[in-house]
Structures are given as C-alpha cells and as structure tokens.
TrEMBL record:
GO terms for cellular component: mitochondrial matrix. This is Ferredoxin, 2Fe-2S. It holds the Pfam family Fer2. Its cofactor is [2Fe-2S] cluster. Gene3D superfamilies: 3.10.20.30. GO terms for biological process: heme A biosynthetic process; iron-sulfur cluster assembly; P450-containing electron transport chain; ubiquinone biosynthetic process. It comes from the Eukaryota. Residues 11-114 form the 2Fe-2S ferredoxin-type domain. Keywords: 2Fe-2S, Iron, Iron-sulfur, Metal-binding. Belongs to the adrenodoxin/putidaredoxin family.
Amino acid sequence: MNLALMTLYRLHVTFIDKDGDRHTFEVSKGDNLLDIAQANDLEMEGACGGSCACSTCHVIVEDEEIFDKIPEASDDENDMLDLAFGLTETSRLGCQVEMTPELDGLVVKLPQMTRNLQASDFENRS
Ligand code: FES
C-alpha cells in the first residue's frame, strides 16, 4: 500500500479522560467515537447503543478548528445535547462523530459527569 493510502486509513484520535490522562488510538475512517472509546475500555456509557437517544456519549472537542470540520449535528443530536451535563460550544455526541481524514488528530475530553435520563429518571434506587 502506498503511503498516501496508508495515511488515509490510519487516523489518530486522543481522548482525555476524567482524570486528565490522554489516550491516543489509531483508528480507521468511519469509526465513531463511541465505538472507539468502548473498544478501548474508556468510560463512555453509550446508554442507547448509539441511536442518538441519550447524552451519555457526550464529548467535548478540544480544538475549535477541528470541531468546525465535523459535519453539523442533526436536530436529534442537538436535542440530546441540550440534555447533556456541562454542555459547551464544542460539545458533540460521540456516537454521531465518525472519523474522517479531516479529523485526523482529533482530541476530545470526556466530561466529568453524564446524565442518563433513560435510566436514572425512572429507576427506583431506594
Ligand atoms: S450513545 Fe446514546 S446518544 Fe450516543
């Protein structure tokens, strides 16, 4: 495989976990951030299984420039993001962000907390 092709399919993404530790992974085009985080045992709940129906895969993109390269959030994603704990200007749902060559080097932070309305609102914890 020539070098240009290899760089197309070997992309890098870094997650900063709740303790501030950085974890960098080599991933492929089309991988989404939820799948990458879960495959690497990072703390991302993904309560709805990636169907854009919760906000437990909330990530905060570190660099505004690269944030602007991510395709716009859908209305459904924006609705869910409104429920996310600690929403920022560069927040996205991890399950809705797929890696592309433009996003090579993406750095995302995992928020300190996530809000799981699906389970925690209806569960009787007493
Ligand atoms: S896993 Fe539920 S919205 Fe991403």
